[in-house]
Amino acid sequence: MAAPLDVDAVQALVAEVPVAEVTLLEDRALVVRRGALTVPPGRSRLVLTKVAPVLVDKTLSASLALPAGAEGELPEDLRVRSVAVARRRVTREEDRPVDLAELQATRRTKAQALASATGQLERIAAEHASTESLLALTLAEINEDVGWGRQDRPRWAEQLDQLEAKLRELGHEATRLEHHKRALQRELDDLAALEAASTSLGSEARAELTLEFNNPGASARELELSVDYLVPGALWRPWHRARLVETEGQAARVEFSCEGAVWQASGEDWTDVQLIFSTERPSLGVTPPPLATDTLRVRKKTSTVEVEARDQKIHTAGLGGEADGARREVAESELPGIDDGGEAIELRGRTKATIPADGRPYRVPIFDFEAPAETALVCAAELAASVILRSRQSNAADHPLLAGPVDLVRNSGLVGRTSLLYIAPGERFELGWGPDSSLRVHREVEELEHERRMMSSWTRKPRRVTVKLSNLSPAAKSIEVKERVAVSEIEKVEVEVGEASHGVEADDDGFVTWALELPGFGREELELNWTMLVHDDVVGL
After folding, report:
1. Which residue numbers in the chain have pLDDT < 50?
2. I want to staple 336 with a disulfide (CB 3.0 to 4.6 A). Which of 6, 321, 342, 449 is the partner?
3. Residues 351, 495: one domain?
4. Statement to judge: residues 20 and 80 lie in one domain
5. Contact 431, 378 (CB under 8 A)
């Protein structure tokens, strides 16, 4: 007679379902675990350990699928019945507290020894002071005997030797007790710290997933299990590295690589996983911004105009691309992104990576490219009194370059770090590679005496800018020097550009550019004169 089948029995399964893929977002990560699984007939249960205890419960999901290459369809009844997470705190054996009674007894013994040493030190200090007083009285008595003509040198020498030997003995004993007292104090401090640590139980959080399956068939099925969930405490940022290759007789080129810097402290290690770097920002949500009342008021127009000078950056995402041999300028000043309707980007790591849950940064290569570069020496003396090596190159990759830091590498190794903004595929961009050590720059600004004509309501404020360059090397250098003049946005302030060296003129943004050929051990002095005309109604300048 056959034994009855227990339909409520749950079979325990054992399977490896490691982390296979992680999609990193701005401040969180989507973890996907995958593994092969044999599901027997009836109900079964699988427990996955070493799961991130900080996972978001409402994002936890699990599904079954046929193995890759298998034919047919998965029956609807063959499914994951439930998936749940259980968390607990575990105390490691090395974190368990020691015997507090023994620890406190040792501490009391050390405290008594410290008190005894302190008392002995006080006694020796008192005896030392008494001996010094006796020595002073003995010397006074010897002086009095000498004044009366008495001579007893052997007795005097014996008394002084005894007193000095006593002082030396007391000094040695005090030094020994002082060292002993310090050692006891250190031991007491250590015991106090150990007692304080032993009163609290050190533990760590752990989590495990419990999955239940239901297979209504009569035979076991080979399936693939997928479990995914969202975890906080993980993020990534783009990081780039550029290497300038300069070979004599050949055009310069830039070897550029994009990497993802990854941090995670989710509580589970990611071992040999495929990383996907995403620019999506789900934390922003879809709630529209609140509207505030904008109140308009009418006030009397004043007779004066308040004006202030400001520095304004000329924003461009790149230098344009190359289309039909002509350079395309970038007109937009806003960077594309999620907030302004840009398309979210997903970049896959070029190789699988291992990211421990220690909160340290790890860099994972994503893509790289090589592009020819146009190098030049540029000088903006108002910003930095040096001549900078600049390169211009195009983004030859199929992916955009995201805003982030760039490590600069030349033949001598790492030379510095800079940053770049969003650069689209095919877009040209610039990189600065640090100052040229053989070039010196000195800049002077001279504000000349203000001029005001009779019966005029305008004041002239002339200025003279002088830039001096020196070449300390025997080789000639081609340098691009930039200066700027003010640009007026109102009618009652005007700017006149006077004489400039080599007859150069300012552009619409107020920049004056010289292209110089500085010979070896040569010098050059550039001068720029410009005048600001200010009406009497203007205040603030």
Report:
1. 1-5, 7, 95, 323-341
2. 342
3. no
4. yes
5. no
